[in-house]
Specification:
The chain is α+β, with helices and mostly antiparallel strands. It contains four helices and twelve strands, in the order ββαβααβββββαββββ. It has two domains: about 50 residues; about 150 residues, Sandwich (Immunoglobulin-like), CATH 2.60.40.
Length: about 200
Amino acid sequence: MNVKDKRQGRTIPEQEGRRTMTKTTVAKFGLLAGGLVFAGGLMFAGGTQEEDPPSVAQVVALDECDPGTFNAALGPDFCKNVALGAATKLTDLFAKAKAGTPDPGWDFEPDTVNIKQGATLNVFDQGGEPHTFTEVAQFGGGFLPVLNAPGEDTVPECAGGFSNLAVAKTRILQGSQRQITGLSKGEHLFECCIHPWMRVKVEVK
């Protein structure tokens, strides 16, 4: 069987026509692959630039408080958790902390942050209860002994709880945020003085 070459008005054997179409297809795929490689190179270059520390960084406070048990013990609307299927009873939170295995549902994310000097660190409380974001010299216990790990003492920066104005100023209510500015170069440690296993290391470059 022969194939009609519409460009030159001549008839060519079917086998030769197939070879021509195959070459055309290969050429098209070659152009596509080249375009993808070029685009990938641009993405890689962009990714390299994004490795630079940002001028604004975000930390999120999370928890899984159970409104029923928390509010019964601590007052109405203390816990405003609306997460579906993720809730820890107050007694369970205490029990896990006492055993030295604090509930991982209480956490700062990310655990490590890299920023430039002069950058702003925004801390959002997206959990259901209040937290603090308190800078400490060394990680340690908070101001509630019942939530501290066995043998862990309260760090000086958390001493006195909310009766200490310095601690009260670091409190973040559910749905609110706190901005940290003016950090010097080097490593800075932050923890929640209520749930002291919630910890963040901030590296300022």
